[in-house]
Amino acid sequence: MERTHLPSGPTAAPRTAVVWSVLRQELARHRDRTLTVVDVGGGTGGFAVPLAEAGHQVTVVDASPDALAALTRRAAEAGVAERITAVQGDGDALGELIAPASIDLVLCHAVLEVVDDPVRVVESLAAALRPGGAASVLVAGRAAAVLARAINGHLDVAAALLADPQGNAGPRDTLRRRYDADSAAALVTAAGLQVEQIHGVRVLADLLPAAVAEGDPQALLDLELAAAAQPPYRDLATQLHLFARRPGA
Q: Is the pTM of this model over 0.85?
């Protein structure tokens, strides 16, 4: 039975289309079987529910009980409750929650910016994957944060972000760290994964006035997809998406 179909809604949004396009390629590699997926920090199921609708078994690990309750309701409404498991926990404890070498695909989106120890989390991701398994890692982009603060007149914050080795703007910053393509790739590679693709996510979607974005959403979508893999546009994106694989079968 082919299991590559994904609902059109989430895959068509300019802010997530790049990630979905990469995930769709991975699902196509395994169209003849059900994948075991873990979504770390998956919240209310923006990725988990469509993946379950496509026929895969998904475990969502999230620290928020409210988010997991919303996920459970959403899964039930979509008719995929039996394919989704909700586990309360955070990224730093992933190694204690997921058995080694048991997962085909792991998603870690907007997690490494806030955890205590990103090195430990990525090592846990790599350990959870079966040989040949893949990781979808989404992190906040440092360059975009600097430019956004500067454009909005917060030059002191932009300067702090630019100068700080971790890409942090100080005690009021909601993120502990931000990445560029090289630093994110180095983190993933050090855990033993091989980076296959790097894309920018929200290269233009966060920069355009709403009237422009809503006026021609297809044109924005096409432009996002075209710019996503091309430096320097990729490197100015709000987020960076790395797709990596554990060597093996």
A: yes
